[in-house]
Amino acid sequence: MSSPTAQAIRADDPVELLGHDRILSQALPLFAHQGYGGVSMREIARAAGLTIGTLYHYFESKHALYLAMLERVYRQAAAHWGQLLLDAPSAPRERLALYVHEYCAFVAANPDFVRLMKREQLNGEPQQMRLQATALLAEQYQATVRLFEQLAPDRNATLLAHSLIGLVVHHYETRELRKQFADYCPQHDDPAFVAGHITSLLLASIDGHGGRPPEETTP
Fold it and tell me: Which of 6, 83, 131, 163 has the fewest CB atoms within 10 Å, measured from its CB?
């Protein structure tokens, strides 16, 4: 057989492409909530409104479908974030504020994507980790590091980039937990509000409010 998707998809056939995209769109929430082992090809076919035979026309195996879905969602996210960092206003502080705002908005609006990423990272399967690193995180991560190098040349840009990602992703990962606390405020899930808070934290750290951690050194 040829590659997992080439056997079924013709790039010049809009019907084929539409069916392919529908399958991957329906597969995302299933894999995100149930994990790879918890989802069957029959269940994916049913969600996509297809027969099992038609599904195998597009993908020769569940593993091939899963990898295609990962690549699709990762590349969509990479294109979104890469454009923000590369084509945004040239002033570094403006670029940081815009990026954090759009990053918060994306994570808040795409819980299945975030859940899937977390599953993959906890699972730690090397092939999936390489896919995340090369298809999703490479351009975003390197552009984020370069941005912090411009903003804070005397600080560790790698740690600042990790801090930004962690602040955004963890905040929305814990959304349901935070709702159980007595002081929960719905505004704390508003991407604009959260982005302003995170941007202020990062800039305060960069500007030296509270002092520089003594153990931190530039690469």
Answer: 6
Range of the domain at 190: 67-206
Note whether 114 and 191 are same-domain residues: yes
Please state the domain count of the chain. Answer: 2
Contact indicator for 44, 30 with CB cutoff of 8 Å: yes
Residues 4 and 84 in one domain: no
Query: pLDDT tens, 124-173?
Result: 888 778 877 776 677 778 888 999 999 999 999 999 999 999 999 999 99
User: 102-105: which pairs have CB atoms within 8 A and are 24 or more residues apart?
Assistant: 103/164, 103/168, 103/195, 104/168, 104/171, 104/172, 104/191, 104/192, 104/194, 104/195, 104/198, 105/191, 105/192, 105/195
Are 75 and 180 part of one and the same domain?
Answer: yes
- What number of H helices and E strands is found in the chain? 11, 0
Is 75 found in the same domain as 53? no
User: pLDDT tens digit string along 84-113?
Assistant: 776 677 799 999 998 899 889 989 988 998
pTM: 0.77
Of the candidates 45, 150, 169, 186, which has an alpha carbon nearest to the alpha carbon of residue 100? 169
